Amino acid sequence: MTAPTDPTTTAAWGELTALRADFTPDLRGWFDTDPTRVERLTRTVGDLHVDLSKNLVTDEVLAALVRLAEQTGVSERYAAMLAGEHINTTEDRAVLHTALRRPAGATPSLAVDGQDVDTDVHEVLDAVAAFATRVRDGEWLGVTGKRVETVVNIGIGGSDLGPVMVYEALKPYAQAGLSARFVSNIDPTDLAQSVADLDPETTLFIVASKTFTTLETLTNARLARDWLWENLAASGAIGADDDSRTSAVAHHFVAVSTALDKVEAFGIDPANAFGFWDWVGGRYSVDSAIGLSLAITLGPDAFRELLAGFHTVDEHVRSTPLEHNVPVLMGLLNVWYTNFLGAQTHAVLPYAQQLHRFAAYLQQLTMESNGKSVRWDGTPVTTDTGEVFWGEPGTNGQHAFYQLIHQGTRLIPADFIAVANPAYPLTDDGRDVHGLFLANFLAQTKALAFGKTAAEVEAEGTTGALVAARTFSGNKPTTSIFAPALTPAVLGQLVGLYEHITFTQGVIWGINSFDQWGVELGKQLALQIAPAIEGDDDALASQDASTRALIAYYREHRG
Ligand code: F6P
User: Fold this and answer.
1) Which of 90, 207, 283, 519 has most ligand 1 atoms within 8 Å of its beta carbon, as the pocket-test mutant?
2) Is there a domain that residue 214 lies in?
3) Which listed site, 11, 413, 489, 505, has its alpha carbon 20 to 30 Å from 4?
4) Active-site residues (predicted)?
5) pLDDT digits (tens, 9 = 90+) for 283-326
């Protein structure tokens, strides 16, 4: 494995540092004097129309950023990933989520570590599709012979955020009479509230866990199993004997995991388990069997369309020169903002209510991937890394936190995402509500870019101290992403876009974007602290003073 290039030692970094020294953002001026700016800075990838023109860049900056990508080996690293090299160095694994969306029969075929990946992927995909069809057609029945009405996905992190985000985004595609719920948190409220109004006879649980060791997921799976047994027995649907219980689990539990032995140990029939592979990272796994809840509710065809959307972006990244490569350019802009203009966060603001879980999904994708301080060879990073991603759908955010983006002191680059055709084309007194909605998207990106000068404020009759309060500086960078409609293919393209943006940034910073050691310490400590909470005084004594005091508070107040 080649050592990462220190980006700060490249000629391009020197150029960018010099450009930064003289840099005065002037979106008004740039738009006024350059009639081709929008055309030159608008790109397409698949169905996505990506307008980069309202970013704080000149052609010179962009060219230097592209040279930075060249000099840090972005293309080479991408080729290494696609070829199945073990670029996840700390776990000694290939990184092949892109293989999950290669079409059947793609050539040349992909073999990794002696394994025919294409065949493996399509075998599982076909099994997922066949199972989904059985559930959808009412061939798969619960223990009392009733068809499934609700699928409950139990998983956390990548085994939850992708499925729930996609389900919410594509709900209009869900089969009538079939819906999904998602339980993730070990806070028992989550499971309790999610199943409270469900009929156990028509509920199918999917236990989704790559490792099948995750405390939250296994705890929730056991709680769900108890709920199933108790409620089926209470109505007389099954007896309390072991055979009845085994049969209930066989009809109401399936699993998705890379650890099929552990699935079996949990009591789920291996025939009802769907596998994937260690070369799929949790946060990159929505297009593996982890998407089973989606294949069931939205249908195998919609699921395959989603995968095709991802593949469109994979192909774009593979075959497009860096200067036209949309995810690479967007990743480079993020590097510009983070490392040269001092941005610490990045807002993602979908003007599509269906994407209301998109920012949450991206938080894991981007922050678990690039929230690192060491590079892939174990040496310290040489720059700031990993922005804080956050966001909410417009227009809600406008009435909450946009004030800070418009007039606060921090630079917050923002991505606006919208579709031309809504899922629900409602009218209000003859007016297209979606048009009104999108007028807000356009108004916000315009206000952020061009602001409002003091002279413009005064021209409206404002005087005194109010002038400054009503002035908008502008030069707040945004990217506008537009698509015809939120179809499965478009959603796949959107997620693929951000996967590759994340990858580009990771390569430039020299990071292994595919491990997540930072989540381990808290997991270990929780296992040590749990006995102390439960009354083990030795475990309590070994805690620090603050933790001891908090446990004491808990013990005192717990009813
Ligand atoms: O703890 C973090 C993490 O490992 C994520 O990377 C992963 O998506 C999540 O936990 C769930 O893991 P699993 O799918 O193995 O239950």
Assistant:
1) 519
2) yes
3) 413
4) 368, 399, 523
5) 999 999 999 999 999 999 999 999 999 999 999 999 999 999 99
